[in-house]
Design a protein that fits this description.
Elements (H helix, E strand, L loop, with lengths): L6 H14 L16 E5 L2 H6 L7 E7 L13 E8 L5 E2 L6 E9 L6 E2 L7 E2 L2 E5 L15 E2 L3 E4 L18 H8 L7 E4 L22 E3 L2 H6 L5 E2 L2 E3 L5 H8 L4 E2 L2 E3 L8 H4 L3 E2 L3 E3 L14 E3 L3 E3 L14 E4 L3 E4 L15 E2 L3 E4 L15 E2 L3 E4 L14 E2 L3 E4 L21 H8 L9 E4 L5 E2 L12
Parallel strand pairs: 1-2, 2-3, 3-5, 4-6, 5-7, 5-8, 7-9, 8-10, 10-11, 12-14, 13-15, 14-16, 15-17, 16-18, 18-20, 19-21, 20-22, 21-23, 22-24, 23-25, 24-26, 25-27, 26-28, 28-29
Antiparallel strand pairs: 29-30
């Protein structure tokens, strides 16, 4: 659990800041949190006629089954808001931006969603959501930018069912989002909600017997992350920068699954040079860093994926990686001349897939690759021959090579690089049993016209 913060003291300091900025339309002075008038709304007509103009609102209480819609309620800020025993199904308050002391949503038997609070940015006290039996959605809290109080959610029997892989807006994933983005500073209390709901924040998004998913989306979240030897699932994203990822480098030894989605990171060498990867490593389209330097002798325990649109600088030495136990997949990215330098990679346990790469030129640096356990696929790439696959002793699956810029049938490619083999190398692999007789071999020229392997003369490595 996160350390409890004195919500009143924190609230006062933030209130002073917001007042000076004119965000709350008030003047900070002694007794500010006690000042103001109390108002009660008990029917829909009151909702529609209420105006906050000229009012200093301490407590606004909205209650009664005749209240069914607060979407256009004229309320920008208040110290305390109570929403109790109403007939509201979808709770949206479009004009509310800040609450200083407490927001209480309790006993609303018809309430299904708390969503679409467009400008709700500042929560300086405690939110209590209690005994709303049909409630399933609290995504309104995701609009918050500052939340320096506590969160108490209890007795909502339909809220918070634990599921893995759902969006941030699903159930209690909203809470994880607020914590991972370093927005929620106070204590979280969860009790008596959906039968399959978490009661501890560390269990949100984790099925019984499953593993916690850690999402680090800011430098503040990186600073707050508690050191652990093995992180089962790590997603780096959002506003995380070089400073934050460097901080994480000293807080973990092994990551089972990594999603690298942090567009604000330009240099991740310290992190990747300190961590081992037991499972999948995925660089998404958001990644813009220079391709990181992994630990010497790195074995990727799962798949190694660089997704389409990734903007990493790839004219770098990736030679620290010696084995990828799963699939090796690179799709739809622009490489600097020569592309990745995987000059230590010896084995890919699964499929080897290069699709849609520009400026790849050749694979001439991939001289130690011995084995591809699955399929070999090279399609729609700007490459000029099959130079680099000279040491293969096994391709375990099918072979598809087609629609690439310039691969000759035999000998050197038309670009004139000496010793750069064309499709004749594939014929050699077939004759030598490196490709299984049962494998499907599909070869095509730049336009996709089929090339029959039977017309090719085998060329062995070195020829």
């Amino acid at each position: 659990m996160r350390k409890y913060f004195d919500s009143i003291l924190v609230s006062r300091s933030f209130l002073a800041v917001f007042c000076c900025l004119g965000l709350l339309g008030c003047v900070e002075k002694t007794g500010e949190l006690e000042r103001g008038d109390n108002f009660v709304i008990t029917n829909q007509n009151d909702v529609e006629s209420f105006t906050s103009e000229g009012k200093d609102i301490h407590t606004l209480t909205i209650e009664g089954p005749d209240v069914t819609d607060l979407t256009d309620l004229d309320i920008k800020s208040a110290k305390i808001i109570n929403i109790r025993n109403t007939g509201i199904k979808k709770l949206a308050i479009k004009k509310l931006s800040a609450v200083q002391i407490a927001l209480n949503i309790e006993g609303n038997n018809e309430l299904e969603t708390i969503a679409d609070w467009d400008i709700f940015k500042f929560m300086l006290g405690t939110i209590r959501i209690d005994n709303n039996p049909k409630l399933t959605d609290i995504s309104a809290l995701m609009t918050l930018k500052v939340y320096n109080g506590n969160l108490e959610i209890s007795g909502n029997k339909s809220l918070g069912e634990n599921k893995v892989g759902e969006e941030d807006s699903f159930g209690f994933n909203v809470i994880r989002y607020l914590l991972d983005n370093d927005i929620l500073k106070g204590e979280v209390k969860l009790s008596n909600n959906h039968p399959a709901a978490a009661t501890d924040i560390d269990d949100i998004g984790v099925t019984p017997g499953g593993s916690r998913r850690y999402i680090i989306a800011s430098d503040g979240a990186a600073n707050s992350f508690k050191s652990m030897d093995i992180v089962p699932y790590l997603h780096l994203k959002g506003t995380l920068t070089d400073r934050g990822i460097t901080t994480l480098a000293s807080k973990m030894k092994v990551v089972d699954t990594l999603i690298f989605d942090a567009g604000g990171v330009t240099n991740a060498d310290k992190f990747f040079g300190n961590v081992d990867f037991n499972g999948d490593v995925t660089f998404t389209s958001a990644a813009k860093c220079t391709f990181p330097k992994f630990k010497s002798g790195t074995v990727i325990g799962g798949n190694f994926v660089i997704e389409e649109g990734c903007q990493m600088n790839t004219q770098v030495d990736a030679g620290a990686i010696v084995e990828i136990k799963g699939d090796f997949s690179v799709k739809g990215i622009k490489l600097s001349w020569g592309g990745f330098v995987f000059n230590k990679l010896e084995k890919v346990g699964g499929n080897f897939t290069y699709v849609g790469l520009t400026d790849a030129w050749t694979f001439n640096e991939m001289t130690k690759l011995r084995e591809i356990g699955g399929n070999l696929t090279i399609m729609n790439c700007d490459i000029h021959g099959l130079w680099g696959f000279d040491k293969l002793t096994r391709i375990g699956g099918n072979v598809t090579i087609s629609h690439n810029t310039d691969i000759a049938l035999e000998g050197t490619n038309s670009g004139g690089a000496a010793g750069n083999p064309g499709f004749c190398r594939i014929r050699y692999y077939m004759d030598a049993g490196i490709i299984s007789p049962d494998a499907a071999v599909t070869l095509g020229d730049a336009g996709g016209s089929v090339i029959d392997p039977e017309i090719l003369t085998a060329c062995a490595p070195g020829n």
